[in-house]
Amino acid sequence: MGQLDGRVALVTGAARGQGRAHARALAAEGAIVVAADIAAPVGTVRYPMPTPEDLDETVALIAGPGGKATPKVMDVRDPAAVDAVVADTVSAHGHIDILVANAGICAFSVFEEISDEAWEEMLGTNLGGTFRCIRAVLPHMKRERYGRIVTISSGAGRCGMLNLGHYVASKWGVIGLTKTVALETAGLGITANVVCPSTTATPMVRNDATYQAFCPEIEHPTEEDALPRIAATSPMGVPWLQPEDITRAVMYLVTDPGLTSGSVIDVNLATSASRT
Predict the structure, then answer these.
(1) Residue 152 belongs to a domain with what CATH number?
(2) Per residue in 213-247, pLDDT tens?
(3) 46 is in which domain, residue-wise?
(4) Is 188 helix (H, G, I), strand (E, B) or coil?
(5) Helix (H) or strand (E) holding 32
(6) Residue 146 designated active-site
(7) What are phi and psi of 266, to 5 degrees?
(8) Count of domains in the chain?
(9) Contact 236/268 with Cβ under 8 angstroms?
């Protein structure tokens, strides 16, 4: 028996990285997982985005040990697409119990060089996508008087960061949005909480654009060049977390009996210790 037997979970950004880790852990505890991802390029994102094959691999990894998962190609910037996936999920399973709003993108830019397109794509995905997914699931959770909403912000949602103005803005917004949802759903059997990871070893981070941001004076820096500089941002001297490190916090929140809401969990290699 799993802790989430019979529960239905929607995980966004599930094709790889953190989303894949969250989806697999939810399924391992018995949840029926709807694994959603854009699985396509985004214009201002300089690293390779996930593919439909990545999304299928997530589902195969869940199905292999006997878990249940369905892939859904979904752009969280598109309200009609989000509403359709939620409606299909409720039609197929009768309810939707868990939302892990994980879909996100990242890009580096000096503030005055952030284009309108880059701003719109960043805010539309990271903050707008979280908003649209929560808005879509809430009526169903209220009807059942049960829901666990976990949003994924970032250490960048707790402070300013160089060359990440639009990313930082989006991740601060996720925290405020989630806290508001927690207040509005208090007493309805629904919780809404945030996880703020520090740098995590996923394709969003392990790419040439990131290495260049940390090593601007090197023409074509490698991961080996960047790792010491990434590690230097952590008091623990560890360059990055693994996706499963974030998943442990997510699983704590989705299995909580309903007493924790409006909270922010930092999984952070001590990076937040010097922040207020």
Answers:
(1) 3.40.50.720
(2) 999 999 999 999 999 999 999 999 999 999 999 99
(3) 8-205+240-261
(4) coil
(5) strand 32-37
(6) no
(7) -95, 125
(8) 1
(9) no
